[in-house]
Amino acid sequence: MTQNKRPPLGLRLLGRLIDRDKNYGLFGDVEELFHIWEEEKGRAAAQGLLWMQVLRTIPHYIYHRLYWSWIMLRSYLKIAVRNLKRRKTYAFINVAGLAAGLACCMVILLYVSNESSYDRYHRDVDRLYRVIEYRKVPAGEFCSAAISAMVATVLEERYSQVEETARIFPVSNVLIERGQRRAFEDRVVYTESSLFRVLTIPFLQGAPDTALRDTTSAVLSRRMAKKYFGDEDPVGRTITVKDHTLDRVYNKAQSVDYIVTGVVADPPSNTHFTYDILLPLSQFDKSWLLREWNAGHTVTYLKLFPGVSGQEFEKQIERMAYDYVNEELTAWGQTRRYFLQSVTDIHFRREFGGLPIRGEFEPPGNRIYLYIYSLIALLVLFIGCMNFVNLSNARGVYRIKEVGLRKVIGAGRGQLVRQFLSESIIITFFATLCACVLINALLPLFNQFAGTTLSAKDLIHPQILASILGLVLIVGVLSGLYPAFVLTAFRPDQILRSTKTSTRGSFALKVLVVGQFAISIFLATGSLTVYKQISYMRSSSLGFDKEFKYVIPMRRNAQVRNQVRTIKTEFLSNSNILEAAASSSVPGRPMRDGHLKWSDDKLDRPLRLQFLSCDDDFLPQYKIEMVAGRAFDERLNDENGAFIINEAAVPYLGYASAEEALGDRLHESIYGRWKTIVGVVKNFHYQGMSQEIEPMYMEVSSSRYDMLTLTLAPGNIPETVRFLEVKWFELFPSVPFEGFFLDDDFDRLYRKEAQMGKMLGVLTSMGLAVACMGLVGLASFLVKHRTKEIGIRKVLGASVSSLMGLLSRQFVVLVVLANVISVPLAYIALTRWLQDFAFRIQLGWDTFTMAGAAALICAVLPILMHSFLAARTDPVESLRYE
Amino acid sequence: MKELTLSEIIFMLAIWRLEESAYGVTIRKHIARVTGKTYTYGTLYSALDQLYKKGYVIKSAGPPTPERGGRSKIFYRLSPEGIGALNAARQLQKEIWKGIPEFFLDKA
């Protein structure tokens, strides 16, 4: 017989599933049967039959298991709800803290997922690339997404790896007319129909393949269709387009009628490619723009065939230009290379080999800010978790009897741990529901700060739901783990015998309080610093006057430009308009690059400076001071012969002093004119305080004016603006009127920082509030715990104030400790952040003191209140309390 | 008293028939022979446990045997309540079938 053989595997498995000792009858039966089978049919068959037996029990087993764990879970749920009901303050603090943290995290999660979803919605996105050009010329190195249109032609003809290419040529300041509706549009894109096969742009009306086939067809976004056609059907109707770019390319002013052939969906919030009106690129077929290797205006997208490696293909096309324009490139001493950039990479990667990529549509995303926001949201959540842990611990006094009794009845430690964990997960779930409600209130605020269009509906997305579920589980387990293990560690006889409750875990409690406050103080210092830096940048003197300035952009409209003088006189006739000046740009708006050199010699390397064209009235109007020389003067024919440079340009151009620069003759390479430096202006922050003041020169050239600045008299400003509009339409009935206030516009330079400041402010106050709530709960428990002690002390003659001191002393110590920990960390982090600013505040002790004091007050106030109440109670009552 | 289900009747009659040797293996074999249904031990035992809980059968442990890995057999016997329930069930069956001729079923 086979008595001594090891029991077969199936039986051992069965042993794992059910209790071997309780079911010895069954086990005996199975084993006996096994031996019978073994003798009748052989061991293998017996094994098989045994397995059948075992496997057929499994579904039932699983059902059974689930059934019982559900029963237990229901009991845990009941206990959890009862506990919550019994101590409402505690429940509120816990749920509110977790909900606040979770809401922050969920909003940030939405934000992060939106940011990292940029351009991922395109079909076959892993095969989509954009071509980037690197150019090295004597004047410097450049990197650009706007490249020659020939690249796409060659890619399509010569390389079999390329499935499709699409070129776009974005233009702005385009005047669109449709009946009485006229407006300037900035997101107008000339393109070809292959674009719809490369990037995913859903058509609402019309067919992608034919929509841009004719040179007179146009495709509108839904927004534009609504704007120009209202509820009418735009397809088949005409819009008139006046585009100065087209005029420049063909060297004649014209307006073109386009027939709308399609309507596409508005660009989603998560794409780099923003468009409003799509026009056919074939409009430029007859021009140099599409045939010239040295043009740099069109952006090229390409789709590779499946299985082609982008990296390998990049190597093949890198030196492509040399096959066509080798001679020119060598003659000019130019290096030119082409690289591929994955379309999904465009949003975040805005530099190439250290050079900023030019020709981008919208300001870049910033990964660092994403990280900062996520980190802070997690920190707030962490504070909420710590509340939970702390309060569970403090409250453990009340739960420990329950634990003891459960143990006596026969609950294993594992079961108890499971109970506590499921309780904390249940509470976290509840908090998540509250957080969802909270999000509805938070999101509009967040959207306003961050300029995003997130909505709570975005939460319903499998990936996000999964992350939230994960977050809930992690938070639930993390915050339940410590109390679960501490509370279940006691032996039941100890718990039930004595009424004394252990103060174990009070060290951990202190650590957690310190942690909470360290984080809160860190955040508070951060938001204070950001706030200070922003107000510093806003309030410090910029070197020019930006108050009451109303700017009217001329949108490169030749008709307007030619009449600048007339406009000025007409406007100045109103006594509410004090000054007027025309210029190519205004502070806060980008200036253009210009190049200066001393001689015509090819060897002489031109220096790149920013440049601004302005008329004689500009400097006095903006109250820009002169350091040396004179300002522009109408009588001295400055248009043909004078420069004014700023102070920063003095050493850049190699002069020892401002006086030395005066009278020097320089050659300007764009217009090829020789001009003399007649004056030096004091540095003014025309690019905002976050950037260094770059060297710049100014000149008078009426053909470049594009902005008209008016100084309005304070008071009655809306009326003055209305006057401007009326006057404008008298002068130019066919040109839309628009304008902006310079100070508002200038503020956009600090948008990112202001966003961050507000965000930090909100997150910090949430974090601090949650931490304080936790402390309130903790203090009330601790004070209650010491009721008797307080009573006895009072009987023995302690004063209310000394009792308050006694009770709050340890918390003060903890908060001070938190300060000590967070100050150096905050110092390091903030110094790093401030380094991004050319002009920045000094990190002083005042910031840290303020943040620390705020935290201390927040922490001590509730404790003092509780101790005051406790110390005031009649000792008779507190001693009677049992 | 609730009526017995058909499978309860099958089990209990099997136990009665097997007399002193009614335990898991034999019960299972017997039922398989009579009804053609082979129960797994999971089902078998939960059914037997149900009967035990209702008080229709009595369990008793036998001596340990080597071919069972040193484990005892659990023998089952009918309790007086069980016999009463079986009687009631037979009575009920009789009542239900009373007066229904054999050929009635043949026709259908």
Strand order of the largest sheet of chain B: 1-2
The rough form of chain B would be described as: elongated
Greatest interface: A-B, 22 and 21 residues
The total tally of domains of chain B equals 1
Stretches of chain A where pLDDT falls below 50 for ≥5 residues?
none
Shape call of chain A: globular
What is the CATH topology of chain B?
A: Arc Repressor Mutant, subunit A
Output the structural class of chain A. Answer: alpha+beta
- Total helical segments of chain B: 5
Bin the helical content of chain A.
Answer: 40-55%
- Tell me the distance between the termini of chain B: 33 Å
Number of DSSP E strands of chain A: 27
Average pLDDT of chain A works out at 84
How does the major sheet of chain B shape up? 2 strands, antiparallel
Please count the helical segments of chain A. 27
Q: Determine the CATH superfamily of chain B.
A: Winged helix-like DNA-binding domain superfamily/Winged helix DNA-binding domain
Q: Please name the CATH architecture of chain B.
A: Orthogonal Bundle
The top level CATH class name of chain B:
Mainly Alpha
Residue fraction in strands of chain A: 15-25%
SSE pattern of chain B, N- to C-terminal: HHHEEHH
Radius of gyration of chain A: 37 Å
Topology readout:
The complex is a heterodimer of chains A (882) and B (108).
Chain A: H1 9-17, H2 24-41, H3 43-86, H4 88-116, E1 128-137, E2 140-144, E3 146-147, H5 150-158, E4 162-171, E5 174-178, E6 181-185, E7 188-191, H6 195-198, E8 203-205, E9 217-221, H7 222-229, E10 238-242, H8 244-250, E11 256-264, E12 277-280, E13 298-304, H9 310-317, H10 322-332, E14 335-342, E15 351-352, E16 355-358, H11 367-409, H12 413-450, H13 462-487, H14 492-497, H15 506-539, E17 549-553, H16 558-561, H17 564-572, E18 577-583, E19 592-597, E20 607-613, H18 618-622, E21 626-629, E22 642-646, H19 649-652, H20 658-661, E23 665-668, E24 673-681, E25 696-699, E26 707-712, H21 717-731, E27 740-741, H22 742-747, H23 751-785, H24 787-795, H25 800-834, H26 845-872, H27 875-880
Parallel strand pairs in A: 2-16, 7-12, 9-11, 20-25, 22-24
Antiparallel strand pairs in A: 1-2, 1-13, 1-14, 3-13, 4-7, 4-13, 5-6, 5-10, 8-11, 9-12, 10-11, 15-16, 17-26, 17-27, 18-26, 19-20, 19-23, 21-24, 22-25, 23-24
Helix pairs in contact in A: 1-3, 2-3, 3-4, 3-12, 4-11, 4-12, 4-13, 4-23, 11-13, 11-15, 11-23, 12-13, 15-23, 15-25, 15-26, 23-26, 25-26
Chain B: H1 6-18, H2 24-35, H3 41-54, E1 57-65, E2 71-78, H4 80-97, H5 102-107
Antiparallel strand pairs in B: 1-2
